[in-house]
Amino acid sequence: MGKDVIIACDFASAQQTYDFLDHFTGRKPFVKIGMELFYAEGPQIVREIKRRGHPIFLDLKLHDIPNTVKKAMAVLSGLEVDICNLHAAGTIPMMQAALEGLTRPDGTRPLLIAVTQLTSTDQESMERDLLIHEPIDQVVMHYARNARQAGLDGVVCSPLEAAKVHEACGADFLTVTPGVRFADGDVGDQKRVMTPAQAKAIGSDYIVVGRPITAAPDPVKAYQRCIDEFVG
Ligand code: C5P
Predict the structure, then answer these.
(1) Which of 111, 147, 158, 201 has its CA 20 to 30 A from that of 73?
(2) Which residue owns the Cα nearest ligand 1 atom 2?
């Protein structure tokens, strides 16, 4: 899979999601399904969106003991998702177990990427609550290298970190980057943003775009603009 735009379908119900996806009669966008929708609707929503022809990033951020994560990943792999993820904080053995669980009998598996430090965690809360005292950008890079060492395919990161991650982990290690806004668009609650064109220039492999597409007056046009800037 090459560079692509992933739409964050942060809707509360299956019906809202299907109504939104019905707009896309041409190219079937890559879709991110998160915890809210998955917990509300269950695996059936994954099967239905897959049946409609969309590649799927299932954003459930697993983090548990290795054996539990391995078994849960085997279930997600059976849903035929294209990308899933976990917390690198679960350690290298947990990430390795996840890969084992994801690998199907025929050797194929979804891509597996890691969350490093959540962007909601800052230096202060990391030191205070987690007792981690290294600079946060070094922690992020360390977790990315752990993910690489465990055999994962990439990380979710800010577009501002993508170039450094590629430097530390190799050009083929995927960077999946949210926090994307159009140059003339609302930033909303995102603090550090880039346009699709800038994300392309710094080497992001996938951009995750939610509200600039889902809340646009013409979502198909907004999606096409992302594709033109990022892929085209
Ligand atoms: O609407 P917006 O474009 O801000 O949506 C971005 C998506 O990426 C949301 O689903 C959000 O939860 C997710 N995300 C993020 N920042 C991270 C990790 C995930 O915005 N660090």
Answers:
(1) 158
(2) 210
CATH of the domain at 153: 3.20.20.70
**What residues are labeled active site?**
61
Number of domains in the chain: 1
Pocket of ligand 1 (CB under 6 A): 8, 10, 34, 119, 156, 178-179, 190, 208-212
> How confident is residue 203, by pLDDT bands cut at 50, 70 and 90?
very high
**Residue 220 structure tokens:** 């198909």
The predicted structure's pLDDT at residue 63: 98
Residues spanned by the domain of 210: 4-230
The first and second tokens of residue 208, run together, are: 């995750």
pLDDT digits (tens, 9 = 90+) for 94-135: 999 999 999 999 999 999 999 999 888 999 999 999 999 999
232 has pLDDT over 90:
no
Burial code (b: 16+ CB inside 10 Å, e: under 16) for 59-73 equals bbbbebebeebbebb
Distance, CA of 102 to chain centre:
17
pTM for the complete prediction?
Answer: 0.96
Q: What is the pLDDT of residues 29-56, one digit of tens each?
A: 999 999 999 999 999 999 999 999 999 9
Which one-letter DSSP state was computed for residue 180? B
Beta bridge partners, 99, equal none
Sign of CA dihedral 59, 63, 66, 69: negative
